[in-house]
Amino acid sequence: AKEQGRNRYHYYAKQLQERAVERLEIETALRHAVADNLLSLVYQPQLDARTGTVIGLEALLRWNNSDGTPYLSPLQIITIAEKNGLIIPIGEWVFHTACRQLRQWQHEGLATPRLAINLSAVQFEEPGLVQLVQDALQKNDLSPDYIELELTESAIMHRPDDAKQKLLELKKLGVWLALDDFGTGYSSLSYLKLFPIDRIKIDRSFVNEATTNNDDAAIVETVISLANNMRMQVIAEGVETQEHVEFLLARGCHEMQGYYYARPLPADQCGKLLIPGFVT
Ligand code: C2E
Ligand code: CA
Ligand code: CA
Ligand code: CA
Hints:
single chain; alpha/beta; 8-stranded mixed barrel; 12 helices; binds ligand C2E; Diguanylate cyclase/phosphodiesterase
């Protein structure tokens, strides 16, 4: 029995060690990826389903192998990067790259919609955030109303009082604020009216089941009327079928994002969806 116990101990110790080594390898690889510009952004269109117009783009992080397959998912990257501090340079890179791309499209004479950028909880609490946003706008000569920041409920609810202050500072810059994955976090509805939120994004888990599950349908309906009553915009993510589109339109939500319309696209392909037009 003692022998067995020792073997088991060795087994677990070895596993732990392997996992630690693996984590270190991934961290090192991520550092190189940042330094060598191996990260990239894709852009997923957001549409007004009534007209089929592209009204927004969401920038999404990618880290691909040279053959184009993903090396790590964005959620894995963000989770690791939040633990080792790389989230700060990665966040800066995302912001500057997305803003530069938007400016590039404008230089090409394309009418650009607003561009949504994701912020994790750690990024949101970082003292340099307001400055980062300001710098990226200034450097790329962008009007702030082209930019929307996507935050989750948990990022905001962690320290609601500080969060409110920070949100007001960001609003003062003139950017839009969206509450991402709405309904999945621990939200108290009363804070919604205290925070300067412009748009609610209904989480795709509810959207996906809304046409087959009564509870999800009720949640989606409730979020839409909540947004309407509080004079906030509302967008549904994870729209995958014609049924989803019809369900949402019938209930007064016309902003949509999902595979039904378009997958996240590399910049050159996304640019083809934008129409020539005047820019401000
Ligand atoms: P998210 O912000 O909720 O982004 C939407 C996710 O849903 C994206 O996954 C997108 O590819 C996926 N999606 C879009 N339409 C559909 C659909 O119709 N069906 C389904 N099943 N999925 C759809 P992705 O790109 O894998 O990103 C995952 C998460 O990683 C994001 O969730 C966001 O939380 C995080 N993330 C991505 N890029 C960044 C970034 O630059 N910064 C930060 N902080 N987080 C990021
Ligand atoms: Ca998002
Ligand atoms: Ca989301
Ligand atoms: Ca999500």
